[in-house]
Structure to design on (169 residues):
């Protein structure tokens, strides 16, 4: 049975909930999936495939997820890797959100060329203004982000199901 590590970073917990959904879908499809926060303690040698994700802030993932992908790339060389970003930039401007995600994926590929990226996705996230530092609340007044849970669970499930053939072949 294929063992998949779903490694992630999260700031407020929203990405952890997405990872729970991904792990559930993979396990339901007969893949042995485990979710864990990205740290140097994870051993990539224990897994056959990977899903790595993080919220996207100002064009970058949170450091633990980005570092895990970059540092582990040599050890997971050739194994299938799917990447996902979570953000709210796409709520006001879908094209700009996708561009920011694709730029990050390209930059990660440049830093870690041995990553065998088989799929990537951008998911809308959860936004609560009270979680923002005061200085970002000021910026948000000029281009307000719609508050609330914007995660599309059906899209997350569909993307996850699309990974199964790539992980079991």
């Amino acid at each position: 049975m294929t063992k998949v590590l779903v490694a992630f970073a999260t700031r407020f917990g929203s990405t952890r909930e997405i990872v729970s959904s991904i792990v559930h879908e993979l396990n339901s499809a007969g893949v042995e999936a485990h979710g864990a926060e990205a740290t140097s303690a994870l051993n990539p040698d224990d897994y056959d495939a990977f899903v790595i994700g993080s919220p996207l802030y100002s064009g970058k993932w949170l450091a633990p997820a980005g570092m895990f992908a970059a540092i582990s790339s040599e050890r997971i060389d050739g194994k299938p890797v799917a990447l996902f970003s979570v953000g709210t930039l796409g709520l006001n401007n879908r094209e700009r959100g996708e561009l920011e995600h694709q730029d990050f994926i390209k930059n990660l590929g440049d830093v870690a060329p041995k990553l065998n990226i088989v799929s990537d996705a951008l998911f809308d996230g959860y936004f609560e203004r009270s979680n923002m530092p005061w200085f970002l609340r000021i910026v948000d007044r000029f281009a307000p982000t719609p508050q609330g849970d914007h995660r599309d669970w059906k899209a997350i499930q569909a993307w996850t199901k699309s990974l199964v053939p790539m992980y079991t072949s």
Residues 102 and 120 are 9 Å apart (CA to CA).
